[in-house]
Amino acid sequence: MNIYQFLHFITFLIYSCLLVFLLWKDPKSLLNRVCAALLACFAVWSFTLIFIYNPSVSKDTSVLFYNIGSLGWISFASFSLWFTLIFTEKKKILKTRIIYLFIFILPLLLIYTQWTGLLSADYIKQSWAWKRVWSDSIWTYLFYIYYLSFIIIVLYLYLNFGIKTREPTKKKQVKIIFITALFSLVFGTLIEVILPELNIPKIPPIPSLGNVITLIWAFGMVYAIAKYKLMVITPALVAENIISTMADSLILLDREGNIISVNKATLDLSGYGEDELTEKSVEMLFTEKDFKSTLLDKTIKKEAIRNYELGFKTKTKDIIPILFSSSTITDEAGGMAGIVCM
Q1: Sign (positive/negative) of CA torsion 308, 309, 314, 320?
Q2: Higher pLDDT, residue 172 or 150
Q3: pTM of the model
Q4: Closest residue by Cα to residue 336 from 281, 298, 307
Q5: Lower CB density within 10 Å: C or N end of the chain?
């Protein structure tokens, strides 16, 4: 394995790991799945280059892997536009079926022309591999128009969304993605499309590294996900935010009546820290004798408690009169999973 093959092998592994990470974060999210599909395009492209940059490979084998790789290097512009439309919240556009024809019909046609030999005229033996030569036909220019127009639309949508959105988190997210996309796409387009078309040689003369350059963009997207939890809005996350910001005290108990979690209002009222309450008996917060037994007895019978007058004990031993309510949390089988108290 030469240095170029090794580089593309590592690039393929990185794209694959990022793809798996995205799906692991939230496999149900459409945005995650489309982003994973975009990374899959880069992964396929990188995988085929491992074999293409083998100097001992035959011309026919090289052509085969160029064709397989076209599934990635042709279609990634389409998936990037789809991802961008979802991210920039173009919901009305995405509801129209014709937009999907616009996004995918042209790359499918171009992939067909690559497989049938209309997009690539010939393959010339180089020291590192067989180099593909673009055909002097309308298909090549159609590819350039498709690729450049889609990339310009993508960058415009990011920039416009970043200017208009009022959400600070969204602004940070789009800033990261826009900057990494701008660098990757502009630099990659310059050395892989513009310079070859103008017959300006690369210095030094190296094979294609477009898929390596786009790693910057891929890392930008994944960093935005990890840093700002982009694309991972789940019911659990929403519930956690509601509980943490609600004005009323809330306590979650396990089946034995021990504290699992409390919200900020409970900590402020009691004066305790969260570590001081976690896994402790709920009785430490209330004045009523055998309160835990009474609470568990009613819970087992699935009897809810509503506006029950109790004394709430603080860390400083003060007693605060409150109205107590509780309800059973059931699991998927209908059994008691815990108790929620307010």
Answers
A1: positive
A2: 150
A3: 0.68
A4: 298
A5: N
Reading the block at residue 116, the tokens are 């049938």
pLDDT mean across residues, the chain: 84
C-alpha triplet 340, 287, 258: angle, nearest 5°:
35
Cβ proximity of 328 and 303 under 8 Å: no
Q: Which of the four pLDDT bands, split at 50, 70 and 90, describes residue 258?
A: confident
Coarse DSSP helix, strand, coil percentages of the chain, rounded to the nearest 5 percent:
60, 15, 25
Based on the fold, state whether residues 180 and 247 are members of the same structural domain.
Answer: no
pLDDT at 193 over 70: no
CATH number at residue 188: 1.20.1070.10
Sign of the CA dihedral with 108 first, then 214, 141, and 203 last = negative
Residue range(s) defining the domain that contains residue 200: 3-233
CA pair distance 12, 267, nearest whole angstrom = 48
* pLDDT value for 228: 62
Please give the sequence-ordered ranges of beta strands (E in DSSP) within the chain, or none if there are none.
120-125, 130-134, 251-253, 259-262, 305-313, 319-330, 336-341
Range of lowest pLDDT (35-49, 173-187, 206-220, 284-298): 284-298
- Look at residue 81 in the predicted model and tell me its pLDDT: 95
**Which three-class secondary structure state does DSSP give residue 66?**
helix
Decide: helix, strand or coil at residue 78: helix
Question: For position 249, which CATH number holds?
Answer: 3.30.450.20
